[in-house]
Design a protein that fits this description.
Layout (H helix, E strand, L loop, with lengths): L1 E5 L3 H11 L7 E5 L2 H10 L5 E5 L8 H10 L5 E5 L4 H9 L4 E4 L4 H12 L28 H11 L4 H8 L3 H15 L4 H10 L10
Helix pairs in contact: 6-7, 6-8, 7-8, 8-9
Length: 212
């Protein structure tokens, strides 16, 4: 397994490397201290399975760096690393194409499980994002209203798939997927795809393939 770890703090990289080594019998971790090095490494390492990127590092200008990396290496899932978990940063990263957002203060077990979830095709967001606007928790919507097919669509959505990919996976038309998504947003009382995944995690609904 080949993983790219980009962060401008050597001590943080040294702390994360042994943790990533627990993912498989053989894990190769390629390190980059800045965005230009990250791009150069990604071009030379075949079969990359994951990239962990510091949200704020030299040469990386906010979410644009994530978008550029995802455009250049669309097959490589990205997890953002950050010392903070500001909602706008989390949502911006996910909308830019990241599959996960991990705060650096997270316990080792949380980081490892989050990485496993993303490698399995799921999405991970910090628990703090499950509180709307940082205020008190609101009563949860009634997810029992979701039909089995809508739950299937939600599971595919949590894996970061587009409407076209969801349609192909479930043998539906894109129009039908849009109808299901509209119903999901209404039932879960959310406004977009990111919020739908967040709410699903908060409610304990599956957001990763079985067995993960």
């Amino acid at each position: 397994m080949k993983i790219l770890l980009a962060d401008d703090h050597p001590l943080f990289r040294e702390g994360v490397k042994p943790l990533l080594g627990k993912l498989a019998q053989k894990v190769e971790v390629y390190e980059a201290p800045d965005y230009p090095t990250l791009l150069d490494l990604a071009k030379t390492v075949p079969d990359l399975e994951l990239a962990l990127l510091d949200l704020f590092m030299p040469g990386m200008h906010g979410m644009e760096g994530v978008r550029r990396f995802r455009a250049a290496f669309p097959a490589v899932p990205v997890i953002m690393l950050s010392a903070t978990e500001q909602p706008e940063h989390v949502q911006g990263a996910m909308e830019a194409g990241a599959s996960g957002f991990i705060t650096k203060s997270s316990p080792s077990e949380v980081i490892l499980n989050a990485v496993k979830l993303v490698l399995a095709g799921g999405a991970y967001l910090p628990p703090a994002m499950l509180q709307r606007g940082g205020g008190p928790l609101q009563p949860l919507p009634d997810h029992s209203q979701l039909t089995p097919r809508q739950r299937d669509v939600l599971l595919e959505l949590a894996q970061g798939k587009s409407n076209r990919q969801i349609a192909a996976a479930l043998d539906l038309t894109e129009g039908t997927v849009k109808i299901h998504l509209a119903a999901i947003f209404r039932i879960l009382q959310v406004n977009n795809r990111t919020e739908a995944v967040l709410m699903a995690q908060k409610m304990g609904l599956p957001t990763a393939p079985p067995g993960v």
